[in-house]
Every structure is written in structure tokens, then in C-alpha cells.
């Protein structure tokens, strides 16, 4: 590991807005009260990377709490540091493997989940790692409120098609979908937030896919 990564790992451990590994289990069912000191809705960004979506959503919606989740501390460092420097109090980061999400959040605790440009895990042998696979969807359904929403943005057409297939197989209700977000009527201030990776994809003239759904049965 390079010196810069080591520095970021050491620094992120001192950030009051970063909770790591087993420490997050103590917040289960009480994130709003314990981390943010309020009873506002809680929104997650999974595989948040540098946390651009988490931080920018927090700026837009000060009456909601936002938690970015990723396992790589050197990536979380950027978003967490920005939030601290800019005094954004309604944002936090949790460093865990997403597979363990049920150990860190209670039933019906979350209002909304965003998945932004995750690793599509394209190999058939890695289907179980896809963040919109059946086992992950089962986990999200438990922690989401009954009216809670799911959002996916991805440049990967195969992953998008796979996600739509899972939604159809489970007979879930879709609210919005497009295979070319920035040439659609759906784009708004929220969907216009661009992550580090999305900017790279757009520079390569890739289309951006988006779908919003819930666990309500059609």
C-alpha cells in the first residue's frame, strides 16, 4: 500500500463522521438519533466510492441524513473530509462490506437507497457479488421502509439489463427507467449529480442508465 493510502487510512480513523466495521453495529436501528442527533429520514449510498453522491445529496436535502457505504477507507476519506471541511452535518460514512448490511441497520430503518456506478461483476461466476442480485435485494427489503425507494445509476448496459430482469422476476414496481438518462425527460438536479467515475464514462461518450423502483408488488 502506498504512503498516500496509508496516510488516508490513518486520517479517516480520526474523522467523527466515519464509522468503521464492527463499530457500526452499535448504531443498528438508531442511526438518525445516535449519529445525527435527530429523527430525520436516513438515505444510503452503497458502494459510494469517493462519496460525491452522498455529499451532494446531503447539501441538497438538509432535512435528511445520508450515509455512504464502502469498504475502501482511502476512497471514503475524500467524501468524509469534504463534509467536515464544509461543515455538512447530515452526512456520515460507514466502512463495511455491503454483505454485512443487516448487521448494521435495523428493520424498516432506511427511507431510500442509491447504488451509483457499482462494479458490475460481469463474469457469470461473480453473479452473487452483484449489488442488485436476489440476495442483496432481500437484504435491502428488510432495512427499507415499506414505502422506501431504490435507485440505480450505471454506465454498464449489461448490469442495467440484469437489474431490470431481477425487478421483473420479483414483480416489483418500477417508477422511472431510462437507458440514456441525459437524453431523457427524467434528468433533474438530483440525477445530474456526477461521480468521479460517471464523469469518466461521459467523457468516453457512454450512455447512463437509471431505474427507480420499490419492493411493492405490481
TrEMBL record:
Pathway: tRNA modification; N(7)-methylguanine-tRNA biosynthesis. The keyword Lipid metabolism does not apply. CDD domains: AdoMet_MTases. S-adenosyl-L-methionine binds at residues 45, 70, 119. InterPro entries: SAM-dependent_MTases_sf, tRNA_(Gua-N-7)_MeTrfase_Trmb, tRNA_methyltr_TrmB_bact. GO terms for cellular component: tRNA methyltransferase complex. It catalyses: guanosine(46) in tRNA + S-adenosyl-L-methionine = N(7)-methylguanosine(46) in tRNA + S-adenosyl-L-homocysteine. Keywords: Methyltransferase, S-adenosyl-L-methionine, Transferase, tRNA processing. Pfam families: Methyltransf_4. It comes from the Bacteria. GO terms for molecular function: tRNA (guanine(46)-N7)-methyltransferase activity. Catalyzes the formation of N(7)-methylguanine at position 46 (m7G46) in tRNA. Belongs to the class I-like SAM-binding methyltransferase superfamily. TrmB family. This is tRNA (guanine-N(7)-)-methyltransferase.
Amino acid at each position: 500500500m502506498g504512503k498516500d493510502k496509508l496516510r488516508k487510512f490513518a486520517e479517516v480513523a480520526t474523522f467523527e463522521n466515519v464509522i468503521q466495521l464492527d463499530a457500526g453495529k452499535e448504531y443498528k436501528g438508531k442511526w438518525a438519533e445516535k449519529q445525527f442527533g435527530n429523527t430525520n429520514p436516513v438515505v444510503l449510498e452503497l458502494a459510494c466510492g469517493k462519496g460525491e453522491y452522498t455529499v451532494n445529496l446531503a447539501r441538497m436535502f438538509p432535512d435528511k441524513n445520508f450515509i455512504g457505504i464502502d469498504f475502501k477507507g482511502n476512497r471514503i476519506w475524500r467524501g468524509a473530509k469534504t463534509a467536515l471541511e464544509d461543515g455538512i452535518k447530515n452526512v456520515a460514512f460507514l466502512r463495511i462490506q455491503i454483505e454485512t448490511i443487516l448487521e448494521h441497520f435495523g428493520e424498516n430503518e432506511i427511507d431510500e437507497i442509491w447504488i451509483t456506478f457499482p462494479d458490475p461483476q460481469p463474469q457469470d461466476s461473480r453473479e452473487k457479488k452483484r449489488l442488485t442480485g436476489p440476495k442483496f435485494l432481500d437484504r435491502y427489503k428488510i432495512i427499507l421502509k415499506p414505502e422506501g425507494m431504490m435507485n440505480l445509476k450505471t454506465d454498464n448496459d449489461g448490469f442495467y439489463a440484469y437489474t431490470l430482469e431481477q425487478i421483473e422476476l420479483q414483480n416489483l414496481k418500477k417508477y422511472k427507467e431510462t437507458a440514456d438518462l441525459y437524453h431523457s425527460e427524467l434528468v433533474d438536479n438530483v440525477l445530474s449529480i456526477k461521480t468521479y467515475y460517471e464523469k469518466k464514462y461521459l467523457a468516453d461518450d457512454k450512455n447512463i442508465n437509471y431505474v427507480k423502483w420499490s419492493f411493492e408488488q405490481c
